[in-house]
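[Automated response] Your request has been received and processed.

Submitted sequence:
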Amino acid sequence: MTVPITPDVERLVAGQKTVAGKIRVLAAAGYPRAEIARMLGKRYQHVRNVLEEPKAAKAAAQPALKGLAEGDAGAFVHDRPKTYRLEVKNGSVTLPPEVLEALGAGPDGVIVAELEGEFFKIISVQESVRRIQERLRPYGRPGVSVVDELIADRRREAAEDDRDDDEWRARNRRDD
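Generated structure:
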């Protein structure tokens, strides 16, 4: 079953002379394989085979743009290999699958981002945890387990709650 191709998809695949080229461009734009297969009227296996080829990334390369204002070229390879052009649609940005993989997040995963002036940095959860641990390190006490302290605090709180409950019961007990 072929799905109608939207104008956005038509712009993305414009200039691609082969089905494989169209598949690679759509995948780089974040479209799932099954949706690419439906849009192009191809089998899922065909799409998978094209994307799993060892040379798929090199074959999808296009010349670097001289300037972004010169036109919409869809997915492109910049002179810096790890630079991506991302489009904002309805306030959302779709990250390429290889970026999600590098960050250790799947399509429904979690990542962390920092806004610093005009830079928006996307960080893996693991790196974010490492940074938090680094920031908190000066507050730790050598030889003291934070986990053991937390457990001890919870036990003290539970004991206080039990005492408060016993006192309340004693005050409110009715003599029968």
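Summary generated for your ticket: The chain has eight helices and four strands. Residues 143-172 form one domain.
If you did not submit this request, please reply to this message.
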